[in-house]
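Weekly puzzle thread! Below is a chain. First person to post its structure in token form gets bragging rights.
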Amino acid sequence: MGRLREDGETLAIRCDAEERPFLIDAHPGVLYVTARYQDWPMVLVALPHAGEELVRELVEDAWAARAPKTLVRARRTEHGFDG
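Winning reply:
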């Protein structure tokens, strides 16, 4: 799903490969990709510059992409996201 890189300030997290360019454009200086991650469905997060809400959303999206769909539906229902 993701990992904290050795510098302790960068989170590498899974994301939708087609959505990644839009995420990076929407959060310049916070989200980016290096050559190492270019071919993987990952985005890098500069944690010192990232807001808590953005990080939470990225983690939840990464989890939802890999979790059993019944758990995803249950969580969304529990939090009022029935759609």
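Puzzle host: Confirmed. Bonus trivia for everyone else. Residues 17 and 41 are 5 Å apart (CA to CA).
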